[in-house]
Amino acid sequence: MTKAIVFLAEGFEEMEALGTVDILRRGGIGVITVSITDDKTVKGAHGISITADATISSMDLGSADALILPGGMPGSSNLDASDVVKDAIMKQYKAGRIVAAICAAPMVLGGLGILEGRKVTCYPGFEEKLCGAQATGRDVEIDGNVITGRGPGLVMKFALALVEALKGDAAAKEVAAGLLLY
What total of structural domains would you count in the chain? Predict the structure, then answer.
């Protein structure tokens, strides 16, 4: 089964994390939410606490087809402060597997040098943290194995791009039709 990991850091954007999880699961992708600490309970940017499926220390982070970073603040900064997350992202990227980030979270990829010369998008005002990328301002950008999304109101487009990358165009269209998006 295709597998994706969605990292959850204190202050994550709830719509981006949970919307992505929901759409990927509708697409038949096994999604595991992973707290970046040893506490499974993670509080989002708007005070919604959720229980992650696993903690970062209990996971094999190298077995996923996609590693996904939801945005939000201070969630994105907390992701960026995690050496374990950044190491997993670099290994995933170098292996040619999907790394994805939405909203403010592309700054993590930018800091790792992953975005150099790529077309990417992010939440307005974070472009300077993309380190050599071409910020397009589009809703979603796919450049090789890097997928970025602009923000919470565009989570469906972001997640459907992930479904398409992982399972193909037909799967993405089927999920979108079920959501009444097409």
Answer: 1
Rg over CA atoms, the chain: 15
Query: 89: buried, middle or exposed (CB in 10 Å: 19+, 13-18, 0-12)?
Result: buried
Q: Give strand pairing partners of 42.
A: 50
SS3 content of the chain, % helix, strand, coil (to 5): 40, 25, 35
Check 99, 103, 107, 159 and give the catalytic one: 103
In a domain, residue 179? The reply is: no
Q: Provide the domain limits for residue 87.
A: 3-173
158-177, pLDDT tens digit by residue? Answer: 999 999 999 999 999 999 99
Q: Is the pTM of this model over 0.85?
A: yes
Active site residue 122: no
